[in-house]
Design brief:
The chain has helices spanning about 1-5, 20-35, 50-60, 70-75, 95-100, 120-130, 145-150, 185-195, 205-220; strands at about 10-15, 45-50, 90, 110, 135-140, 155-160, 165, 170-175, 200, 225. The relative contact order is 0.14. The strands form three sheets. Strands 3-2-4-1-5-8 form a six-stranded parallel β-sheet, sandwiched between helices. Strands 6-7 form a two-stranded antiparallel ribbon. Strands 9-10 form a two-stranded parallel ribbon. The protein starts with a helix and ends in an 11-residue tail after the last strand. A hairpin with a 2-residue loop joins strand 6 (about 155-160) and strand 7 (about 165). It is about 35% helix and about 15% strand. It is an alpha/beta fold. The chain is built from nine helices and ten strands.
């Protein structure tokens, strides 16, 4: 995706959560650069445009032994951390952020928020969504009624800052970067804790997913399972 977009002179806009997801993306981009997988612009510029993402990244650049896997640690040496690669830029001010859209250099911009509901990414979406040479790369679940979901649905126009913006940019979706456990992971966890659980509440997600989660809990031995509706109350003894 990066190679094709930069070759066409476009930008890759990646809406991202600032903590965790942004660093995961940097990790993969580091590997992409190390392996020379982008042929069109091997030393392509990457911008982290989120004050919180910058602070979180600086923490990951410290001693992370015990917090990341061995493969990640192998990318770190005495003088380099796992996100060390050339042409990585941390955007400080809001003015610098806006200037990125005036710069014609093809680039990758990682910016919050992850569901496009606020933050600096809105400026980039407003400017880049209208150009078919650009790509908006969605790397996480987009909840109903969010701008991110409307982008995933590839609406003809999206509303940004109250303005209707034509969505001409290509939209690509990668679902494999979710930080949430999948069904198998949740079942493994349930089986570890179920003997100590008297009641379980399934509350997170869209209604059909919550109902499915409640069924899974029951199937794996938790007898008292509730998928509460808004406004319902419960008393515990």
């Amino acid at each position: 995706i990066i190679d094709e977009t930069l070759k066409n002179g476009g930008n890759v806009i990646i809406p991202s959560f600032a903590v965790g997801r942004a660093q995961e993306l940097l990790y993969f981009i580091r590997r992409i650069k190390d392996q020379g997988l982008v042929k069109s612009v091997p030393d392509f510029p990457v911008y982290i445009d989120s004050p919180l993402a910058e602070k979180a990244t600086s923490i990951f650049c410290g001693d992370v032994r015990g917090y990341v896997d061995e493969e990640s640690l192998d990318l770190s040496t005495d003088d380099k951390h796992m996100f060390s690669f050339t042409n990585l830029h941390m955007v400080e001010s809001g003015e610098e952020s806006k200037q990125l859209n005036a710069d014609p250099t093809p680039k990758v911009i990682i910016s919050a928020s992850g569901m496009c509901e606020g933050g600096r990414v809105l400026h980039h979406l407003k400017h880049c969504a209208q150009d078919e040479d650009n790509i908006i790369l969605i790397c996480g679940f987009q909840a109903e009624n969010t701008l991110g979901r409307r982008i995933v649905e590839k609406r003809e126009t999206i509303k940004v800052f109250g303005e209707d913006v034509p969505l001409r940019a290509r939209v690509e979706i990668i679902n494999a970067l979710s930080a949430h456990a999948d069904r198998a992971g949740l079942i493994d966890w349930i089986n570890e804790v179920k003997d100590n659980v008297r009641s379980a509440f399934a509350v997170h997600g869209e209604p059909e997913k919550v109902a499915a989660m409640a069924d899974i809990l029951k199937e794996h031995g938790i007898r008292n399972v509730v998928a509460p509706m808004p406004g319902q109350t419960y008393q515990f003894e």
